[in-house]
Design a protein that fits this description.
The chain is α+β, with helices and mostly antiparallel strands. Helices cover about 35% and strands about 25% of the residues. It has four helices and eight strands. The strands form two sheets. Strands 1-8-3-6 form a four-stranded antiparallel beta sheet. A four-stranded antiparallel beta sheet has the order 2-7-4-5, with no helix packed on it. Strand 4 and strand 5 form a beta hairpin.
């Protein structure tokens, strides 16, 4: 079980009391992974949110012409795979360890059980989750605008250079 002090580092759990963090910790799994190990691959069934407790995780495109193209790297305190708590769609990217890692996990089933057993905690996490997703969308939009500005200045991307 993950320590509540470690959970406190994640914005997903902002505003939770010590007792609420303890309830969340009891629902979370812990994983030790090795450098190069895939946590999930593009197209895999989702159902688990992960958080980086220690180490670095690369989020990558794992198919097509951009095979193993790293979109971003996540360090301790970052979550990924968060859409699993929102929908059951397939993974849009791959997650691979850039170095040995310690991760926590929260399954959609455990999150649903939390909604029944502790609706206040569930609500706070959903609110924080919406802020995390919103922040990621804003960063993506900024990257798209930057890419569009480069295009206007005569810079052009090759057809296979996708903007993520």
């Amino acid at each position: 079980m993950i320590e509540t002090d470690k959970l406190r580092a994640f914005s997903l759990f902002r505003g939770l009391s010590q007792d609420e963090l303890q309830a969340v910790a009891s629902s979370c799994g812990m994983w030790e992974t090795l450098k190069g190990q895939y946590i999930f691959k593009e197209g895999d069934k989702s159902g688990i949110l992960y958080g980086v407790v220690e180490g670095r995780v690369m989020v990558q495109l794992s198919s097509g012409r951009l095979l193993n193209h790293t979109i971003c790297e996540l360090n301790a305190g970052h979550i990924f795979g968060e859409l699993a708590l929102i929908d059951a769609e397939a993974r849009m990217s791959a997650a691979r360890c850039a170095e040995d890692c310690i991760l926590f996990s929260l399954t959609t089933d455990d999150f649903r059980r939390m909604a029944k057993s502790n609706p206040g905690v569930h609500h706070k996490i959903l609110k924080n989750l919406s802020l995390v997703v919103s922040e990621k969308l804003r960063r993506l939009e900024a990257r798209l605008r930057e890419q569009a500005d480069k295009s206007k200045k005569g810079y052009s991307c090759p057809p296979d250079d996708a903007v993520i």
